[in-house]
Protein 1
Amino acid sequence: MAGLDSLLGGGFPPGHVYLVSGEPMNAMELIGYHCASATAAGGSAGYFATENTPEEIKLGIQAVGGNPERVHVIPLPYQGKWVVPDAKKGMRYVVDSLSMLILNAGFMEAYQNLKRVKAQMRQNGDNLIVLVTAGLHSEKEVAMLRQWADGVMELGFDRQGFGLYPYLKISKMRGTPDSARLLLVKETDRGLSLDSTKRVF
């Protein structure tokens, strides 16, 4: 995703965790597939499955040009402690639906797991990208998740005249020159294309 890479100076810094939130739409899943796919190109990535099947995840990664054989799909239990098997330095992990875990296990149990996994990511120099569906959680829960994350990306729609334009809002991101930026989101036959709107909140 060239627009996002350019904004972040080449990609996500290691040892950080990121929150991606938005309405249930293809773009949010595609961001997860792109993130896993880019890492798998140079090594391997992990994909925590809570909503999609391993087969669906592999197909999604293949659809954005990734190698699904280099992505380890890890089913996450709705309750109990999350386990990160075979953790290696420099890995990137994606949680396909934190919202599903929260709805089934309760917010505090999911949040405690997030804090524990964040410490592990920091220690190993790994990345964690967590997808959350907007509108399913209380204001307090959203505030806690935003505080937990090192960076926040929010998918939304900008209404201009009679047009509706999807965008990705970047905020609270380490290393970005502005406090918040917008990238226009376009779906293509190879996944997502992100272009800077050069608009700053």
Protein 2
Amino acid sequence: MTADARFVLDANVFIQAQRAYYAFDICPGYWKAMLAHHDSARLCSIDQIRGELLAGRDALADWVAGSAPATFFADTDDPVITVWFGQLMAWVQSRPQFSAAAKAEFAAKADGWLVAYARALGCTVVTLEVANPKVQRKVPIPNVCDAFGVEYTNTFDMLRALATQFEWQRE
């Protein structure tokens, strides 16, 4: 990962942060940092992820709708991204290790578009999923990233790469 890496975020990065370690009431600085790094063109997510997050109808959906600018969730309606998405889907479908249900789920969710966006624009995918070459019930994002030469990382390594720190202060 280069010092000027650009990151594209999976839905689980938002969901797990909000539900656990960076809940809005515990660490508002995380969410402010996300917006600041977006403003400096270092991170974003994609339109399909936005749709998944809004479907949650919770505090995270409220943040997506009310605090995140529309530009935070990049449009994937681009011919280059679409070509990569087609290649990713062909690869997934050609893998006998994945169950038919896993292939169908991957095709229906934002995961393929996320990797296609990263591949087309040279971004690093940020996900909490881990590579698993033997998995059958799911198509892990890192497996697809490995097959297509796309870098991936987790939330904490992304924050380190962005030199993000959260400090306690008494109010």
Protein 3
Amino acid sequence: MVIPKVIFKYSYIYDKNWKGWIKAYRKKTQKYPSAKQIQNYIKKVENLWSKDEKKILTALQDITSLKWKSKYIQCYIVGRCIPFSDPLTLSVYDKNLYYFIDTLIHELIHQLFTQDGNFKQSKKAWNYIRRKYKYTSHRTKIHIPLFAIYSYIYIKFYGERRLQMNIKSIIFLTDYKKAWNIVQKEGYQNIIREFTKRIK
């Protein structure tokens, strides 16, 4: 069984590109962190994540029936960005290190879905999601099973209160709000069961 190690990485070139993008396209933003501030931040999140890494990544594999294929997952950390899963890229969150962990877990679930062979293995599960929720956006569809799995992880390891705080922090995004409403209405256990029984 492969349980990967998340390697947090700073790239000056990558960070510089994000800094330029943020300045060009974001009218209001927080002060952009310096390279030294980002590198210090990496040390903090490495320490925090190391406490839970193995149990979270193992649980994600167990609950989805999908296997991690990579021994290492590089996670780039930049001053400011829109987080995404490939290449795994996260921002500095000045006020709340735990929000970084919440965002990391979100993006790691995306990573698990798309690692080598996993999308093919779960094709029937995704076809089921597309059919059942055909009147929702693509972004909503892909986040329905993700948020169901996310709910399982948070209730198991962090508690309902932290899960609800995380939901509130992103509920302003319309597609996410719809996905969370579906998960809460139908029950995360039911969605996970219907999704994973179609994974082969």
